Amino acid sequence: MKDPHNELSNSTNFIQSIINEDLKNNKDNNRVHTRFPPEPNGYLHIGHAKSICLNFGLAETYGGLCNLRFDDTNPTKEEVEYVDSIKADVKWLGFDWDDRLFYASDYFELLYGYAVALIKSGKAYVCDLTAEQIRKYRGTLTEPGKDSPYRTRSADENLDLFQRMRAGEFPDGSRVLRAKINMASPNLNMRDPVLYRIQRANHHRTGDNWCIYPMYDYAHPISDAIEGVTHSICTLEFEDHRPLYDWVLDNVDVSCQPQQIEFARLNLSHTVMSKRKLRALVEQGFVSGWDDPRMPTISGLRRRGYTSEAIRDFCERIGVAKSNSFVDIAMLEHCIREDLNARAMRAMAVLRPLKVIIDNYPEDRVEMLEAENNPEHPDMGFRQVPFTRELYIEQDDFREDPPRKFFRLAPGREVRLKHAYVIKCERVVKDEQTGRVLELHCIYDPETRSGMSNEVRKVKGTLHWVSVAHAVKAEVRLYDHLFVKENPEEDEDFRVNLNSGSLEVLTCLVEPSLADVQPGSRYQFLRQGYFGADMDTSAGAPVFNRIVSLKDSWAKIQKAQGNK
What is the pLDDT of residue 9? Predict the structure, then answer.
């Protein structure tokens, strides 16, 4: 086992402190065994990535084990599609459960047996109250609940009714099995919680074998115990459920007693972190699917072009805390910029083209210029970029009447074309009807080619460009935050804060080296941002998603705070 005291001395969080103390006292025979237990009722999001990294990371740090277990106890909302997507996400993030893939449905028979034992010991009873009546009987935070009129049924009667519930004799919702705990407990979760409900629904693994299904709060602790989990790590909303977690384990015959530990969930700005709300966005057509690149789902981030390394780095930076907090999405963007700055190939792409004609450059000449693939890593080599008399530059890189500190192209001004020459704008051609600029006529200085030993001309502006004759058409999808409001859930209907400008699709022109990119390839488009080739890419027809712009607001925030 790795020594966490040496490895984590500068970054030990409160969960590691608990584990360190447990190991010091030889609790659980010096074992560390965690689990990641998603419900397969939707795609995972960036908040789940934090939990995945924490659970699998702790197991790795302490030389322990981590299971992947699907808590599939609600068949009406669960699908095989979600199971497959979750497994793919965990693998993509860089973690492996080896032979420890489990399902709560693996234990349905065992869970039923434990429920029978609770009934026989007088700790569970069948209740005929409706769901609405149960809520009314439960009481409030300031008033105790009152006993169900069915609470005094005999063990034999309860056992008979429970067996008949399993046999399918009663309609859905007509009866439930409840734990007999304390209707006056200050914790509402301990006021005779429901353990089983009747629900006729086809289960993705057990089919129609069952018409009663265990509740999460009952199945979860027992599943943990069956699998030998030592530390059951969950998010803060389950803190009030911990007494019930412990009650279940104290009252069933299991040999393992896992410890539930809660940590703060991730709340990320300009997005929502609820599978229910994300499902609504998908089903109501606000996004194209669970993997829409605007979604905070792991599959959406992956399709947009995020790397698993950047997401793991983000999860490491935000840390593990005991209280909820709000993380600026700029921090996530900062992590992907840092990662891609080192690994992404550079390329030139013109998103909104404006033609430039270099009048003194030979019409039939094609000059192959050398361009570095990544200035951060010279070992990534160089590529050849064709330079010709007619080029495209960005429309925003020209102003007929430039404002102060505008160092790009303007009438009579010089700029450098990246990897190429210094050019000077001599004439502007405009549409006579609209006044729109159609093309620029420039001249170049042949003595100013980049890399020439005698090149001494210094100009303030450097522009990217593509050759008209060699440019490749590409679809570029510019993504922005999905919500305009930092915390969209402040409003009763979070959807009113959707950003109508969160996606802009352009037909652009890119350098010829990008003609046959493979889906998943990532590039820095010079002066534009980082882009990833989408799965819709085909031979000769690239499609790029903007992963993130070059502007790094998080770095500026950190600098302003005096942090590195």
Answer: 38
Query: Residue 286 phi/psi, 5° resolution?
Result: -75, -25
The residues near 118 (Cβ < 8 Å, ≥ 6 apart) are 124, 179, 195, 251, 252
State the Cα–Cα distance between residues 182 and 192, nearest whole angstrom.
6
Catalytic residue among 31, 35, 39, 242: 39
DSSP, res 403: P
Q: What is the largest CA-CA distance in the chain?
A: 101
Beta bridge partners of 197: 176, 213
Which of 35, 175, 180, 265 is the catalytic position? Answer: 265
Is residue 438 within a helix (H) or strand (E), and if so which, with residue range?
strand 437-445
Long-range contacts of 298-301 (CB under 8 A, 24+ apart): 298/43, 298/44, 298/45, 298/46, 298/48, 298/49, 298/89, 298/92, 298/93, 299/43, 299/44, 299/85, 299/88, 299/89, 300/43, 301/46
Residues whose CB is less than 8 angstroms from the CB of residue 467 and which lie 6 or more positions away in sequence, other chains included: 366, 385, 386, 387, 388, 390, 391, 392, 511, 512
Sign of the Cα torsion 216, 219, 223, 224 reads positive
User: How confident is the model at residue 559, as a pLDDT?
Assistant: 65
Main-chain dihedrals φ then ψ at residue 231, nearest 5 degrees: -130, 110
Pairing of strands 543-549, 472-479: parallel
- 91 annotated active-site: no
- pTM attached to this predicted model: 0.91
Digit-coded pLDDT (tens) for 44-87: 999 999 999 999 999 999 999 999 999 999 999 999 999 999 99
Q: Is 265 a catalytic residue?
A: yes
Which phi and psi (to 5°) does residue 282 adopt? -70, -50
Distances (CA, A) of 296 to 39, 316, 339, 506: 17, 18, 19, 23
Judge whether 316 counts as a catalytic residue: no
Strands 353-358 and 437-445: parallel
Q: Which residues contact 61 (CB under 8 A, 6 or more apart)?
A: 2, 4, 7, 8, 16
Q: Which residues pair with 326 in a beta bridge?
A: 267
Residue 296: left (phi > 0), alpha (psi -120 to 50), or beta?
A: alpha
Q: Contact at 8 Å (CB) between 71 and 38?
A: yes
* Continuous segment of H or E residues that includes residue 531: strand 529-533
User: Contact 250/309 with Cβ under 8 angstroms?
Assistant: no
User: Interhelix angle for 14-24 vs 46-61, to 10°?
Assistant: 30
Torsion angles phi and psi, residue 127, rounded to 5? -120, 135
Q: What is the pLDDT of residue 556?
A: 62
**Helix (H, G, I), strand (E, B), or coil: what is residue 456?**
coil
Distance CA 177, CA 78 (A): 22
Strand order in the sheet with 33-36: 33-36, 65-70, 101-103
pLDDT tens digits, residue range 343-400? 999 999 999 999 999 999 999 999 999 999 999 899 999 999 999 999 999 999 999 9
Residues of the chain with pLDDT under 70: 1-11, 453-456, 552-564
Q: What is the side-by-side order of every strand in the sheet holding 529-533?
A: 345-347, 522-525, 529-533, 543-549, 472-479, 503-510, 349-350
CA atoms within 13 A on the CB side of 457: 21
Instruction: Say which of 175, 180, 275, 522 is annotated catalytic.
Output: 275
